[in-house]
Amino acid sequence: LTWAWLQLFFMGVPWGNNKIDIGDPKSLKRVIKEKYEGLGKMDFHQCAVLANFSILILLWFFRDPQFIPGWGEYFLEPVKDICGNTKYHQLIDDASAALLIVLVLFIFPSKLTFWPFVPLAHSKPAPS
Question: How far apart (Å, rounded) are the C-alpha atoms in residues 25 and 16?
């Protein structure tokens, strides 16, 4: 419903003449390039979030990939059904991997201001 409202508000009805005037394409390209250059280089914490997100995608994909045994098969629980047959149920799901990555993001620092990354004389004490 929200998508439809935004579509109608910004784009208009699909059967009408609703050309959006974006101005001169060259000036638009120049503005986008200026904004992109204004972003600067990626900081350590941005790289850390990118790396953790990439790891999360891999954890989601390889938990139960269906063509090879996944890492989720190390966490199985035997469950007996009504007929007495034993089936195995995974104790881990996608939320477990996401919570692990969130925990890692809270544990690792956002700035490299401790001993191995700066000289010992310039390192700052941990906040209390």
Answer: 23
| Residue pointed to by tokens 């914490």 | 45
Reported confidence tier of residue 36, pLDDT bands at 50, 70, 90:
very high
Centre a 10 Å sphere on the Cβ of residue 71 and count the other Cβ atoms it contains. 14
**pLDDT-derived band at 98, boundaries 50, 70, 90:** very high
Q: What is the DSSP string of 61-95?
A: HHHS-SSS--GGGGSEEEEE-TTS-EEEEES--HH
Please give the Cα distance from 98 to 101 (Å, whole number): 5
CA-CA distance, 58 to 101, in Å (whole number)? 12
pTM over 0.85: no
